[in-house]
Design goal:
60% of the residues lie in helices and 8% in strands. The chain is of the alpha+beta class. α2 (21-24) links the parallel β1 (16-19) and β2.
């Protein structure tokens, strides 16, 4: 029989020891997953919950060893699910995921890039120089979401995370803020703004959540000496116009500045369209077209859709159909410029049928 001390001597220097109690209320593993972990004092009553938490981040065939009375019993997460009960207590040894699978490991990589022996390009970057890349990676993430490709989404989220960690590393080097400040700040904000989850506040539905959210934000502004700041002042002017319009409408709706049903929202679109046709000059036309677009965005909002995403999808659909027209024209040896609209429309319908 091998005792626990001898087993521990065989383990790598980096080892996490976790009591089973801290997993009982957890939804994800509370430790870096590229390190080996021993979960202490697991019994039959707690095993199922432990497995559920581990499954959120480890594959089902991930190796786990049950250590009981000094004996190691090789297993997997999937096998642990089928164990009906454990006689007494045991410890679970969870093998690490590949190196680099934790947030801490990635943060170390970025710190190395910025170190004296790091990358000249990364060391040169500043908050300001990285701005275009942050915007670019955000849009590429949105494009991946539009495609519905989970592998691409994961890749682009990684690129976006790179920008966030780079900014945090620069903040640490400048002495303005550190990664724990970033994490603690958003942690406290989310917990504070969800008293219906982490406190004893009761809300009836999603609308109640949003109304309470705005009340809490107003209290925060008052505490921070921003009492004169309006609800819409914090909507970033740099947002795309469609996103900005929908965010403005959302915030106004949270205090009741909204229609009670969708029909007046639809009618407003027709009303604005009529005013476009009655515009007397270019200045009025620009104003009325803006009002029309704003009204359409509100209609999209009432259908619980995102205007920016809806238009992006339409843009992509148009690009695919027009590409089909170009392909068909090349096959016939004719230029689109030499074709009639009816001819092109016929191919357009073909493109629609292929979707």
């Amino acid at each position: 029989m091998v005792d626990l001390n001898s087993i521990l001597r065989e383990l790598p220097d980096r080892l996490m020891l976790v009591k089973v109690d801290c997993l009982q209320e957890a939804h994800v593993p509370p430790f870096p997953m590229d390190a080996p972990v021993i979960i202490l004092d697991v019994d039959g009553a707690s095993l199922s919950r432990v497995v559920d938490v581990l499954k959120t981040s480890y594959p089902l065939d991930h190796p786990v060893e049950v250590i009981q009375e000094g004996i190691k019993h090789p297993s997997t997460l999937e096998s642990l699910e089928s164990i009906a009960d454990i006689d007494g207590f045991c410890n679970l040894y969870v093998h690490p995921l590949p190196a680099g699978s934790s947030f801490e490991a990635f943060q170390e990589v970025i710190a190395h890039l910025r170190a004296a022996d790091g990358c000249p390009w990364d060391r040169k970057q500043t908050h300001n120089s990285l701005r275009p890349y942050l915007l670019e990676e955000t849009y590429e993430t949105l494009a991946a979401l539009d495609l519905g490709d989970p592998v691409k989404v994961a890749e682009e989220l990684g690129d976006l995370l790179l920008q966030i960690v780079l900014h945090a590393q620069i903040g640490m080097e400048e002495g303005t803020f550190r990664m724990p400040d970033v994490l603690y700040g958003i942690h406290e904000k989310i917990v504070r703004r969800h008293p219906h989850v982490f406190g004893d506040v009761e809300v009836g539905d999603e609308t109640g959540v949003l109304i309470n959210w705005e009340r809490l934000k107003a209290e925060e502004r008052e505490t921070n000496g921003e009492g004169e700041k309006g609800m819409l002042d914090s909507v970033p002017l740099a947002l795309p116009a469609l996103t900005q319009a929908q965010e403005i409408q959302d915030r106004a709706a949270r205090v009741g500045f909204d229609w009670q049903e969708i029909e007046p929202v639809r009618q407003k679109v027709f009303e604005e369209l009529e005013e476009v046709s009655q515009a007397a000059n270019q200045e009025e036309l620009e104003k009325e077209l803006g009002d029309l677009i704003f009204a359409v965005v509100n209609l999209v909002r009432w259908y619980d859709l995102d205007a920016e995403s809806v238009l992006r999808t339409t843009n992509q659909r148009f690009r695919q159909r027009f590409s089909y027209l170009e392909k068909r024209s090349a096959e016939t040896g004719r230029s689109l410029r030499d074709m009639t609209l009816d001819e092109m429309d016929s191919w357009w319908e073909e493109a629609k049928d292929l979707e």
